[in-house]
Amino acid sequence: MVPRRRRPPPSVFIFPRFLHSSNTRFPHPRAKFPNHHRSSSPHPNPRTAPPRDSVSPFAAEMPPRRLSAKRRRCRATEAAAAEADALISLPPGVLDDILTRVGIRDAVRTSALSRAWRRRWEALSSLDLIFPSLGYDKVPPEALGAVDCILLRFPGSVRRFCANLDNAYAGRIHDWLRVLSRRGIEILDLKFGYGFALPPSVFSCSRLTSLTLSSCVIPLLPLGFVAFPELRRLTLVYVQLQEYGGYQLEEIIETSPLLEYLSLISVLIRGDYVRKWVIRAPNLRHLEACSDYDDDGWILKKLTSLRCAKIAFTVFLVHRNFAKFLSGLVQVTELSVSTGYIPSSAKMPEILCTFHNLKSLNLKVHFYKQHPIMLTLYLLKSAPNLEELKLKIYDEEELEFEANGEFLNALWADGMCANLQVVQMSGIHWLPNEMSFIELILSKARRLHTLSISHSEEIVMSNEDALNELLRYRRASTEAQILFKGKTEDYY
């Protein structure tokens, strides 16, 4: 009986005889080699046959299998969900801080991260609602719905609400303000189309710390109005008040004991006759007032904490005592005054109050007329401890008065500019009045170390000739340096 031939193991391959040696290392049995064929002959030594799971030396040369786009998206989603779930384990206070910083739009979008993040933004203790895209053009209806939806779904307090709206929102803003007042709104910033009638519900927001209203008509105070006990910043820009509205504004300011910042820009009080009203705020530190009229009726009193004041008049105060007006600012350390147009009939005060604390003075004046030059020197005389002077000159007309060295020296007094160290002049035209003033400062300021100059668009002489003339002026300070900045870029 002929013995049956045994089949070789499936993992054994027969290679040419010249490959068999004691030092031969066999590759993976499934590796494909060119010019070699499989054989059914058994391996000479089955014990030394390569194992099934041995690695082919050519495996590194084989390109990895690419994942499909769908599989890549799934893995990215899984990774994002894993990271989101890791974040959700953070303390609630940290999560609230993260969601508050990213803004309302991205905070709501976190609901799509995972189930744990769903509606997490609704658990915030407070929320900031800022809608800078709501402007004067046509606003899509979904913008209105977004505000309504957020105010409806979010149960917590709303810390800040800022929006730029037009008059089409008249029906919505009243409801929004009522909801915001119940949510403890702290910062309210509303800009409207000019002439928008603001609803009285704005006065129900008693927890406000900052209130900014622009281009609207402020209603009369409702009955039962108490105050804004926590208000620290009040900004009114291009707003109108009803007749006798000065008294109303006076009451709002006076009943805000924590008020530190007050800005009144082009505030119009309706009526044929302007009545005097008082700005009285013991804790006020910063005052900014810009008036388009000769007399808005406001008087400064008891501003004992005031440190910085910016005053601008389109028309100079002709019908009121300018010296008395400045006496309400006597305690400031920084003062900015823009005189605007000063008519020839205006009476310039020769004696002003003394600003002992004033360190920085910023003036925007004309230098082609006599009165602005005199006012500049009077203010310098009233500030014995002044260290920094900034002059912005806007001379758009021909020279009406020549302020030569003799005229300027007659207005100078001993002790003027004794501590002046820095002078910045911008918008000059190299006019004779400007050159004479520069010569005066260089010859009198003994502690001056920097005089920087930049010129306007139109000049009456070349920069080279003007600088050569400046270098010939006598200097009272050996450390005084003249820095030429070229053309004024940020004049306004």
TrEMBL record:
Matches recorded under PROSITE patterns: FBOX
A Pfam family annotated for this UniProt entry: F-box
Region feature Disordered, mapped onto this chain: 22-70
InterPro entries attached to this UniProt entry: F-box-like_dom_sf (IPR036047), F-box_dom (IPR001810), FBL13/AtMIF1-like (IPR050232), LRR_dom_sf (IPR032675), LRR_FXL15/At3g58940/PEG3-like (IPR055411)
F-box domain residues: 84-134
PANTHER family: F-BOX/RNI SUPERFAMILY PROTEIN-RELATED, SUPERFAMILY PROTEIN, PUTATIVE-RELATED
Protein name: F-box domain-containing protein
Origin organism lineage: Eukaryota, Viridiplantae, Streptophyta, Embryophyta, Tracheophyta
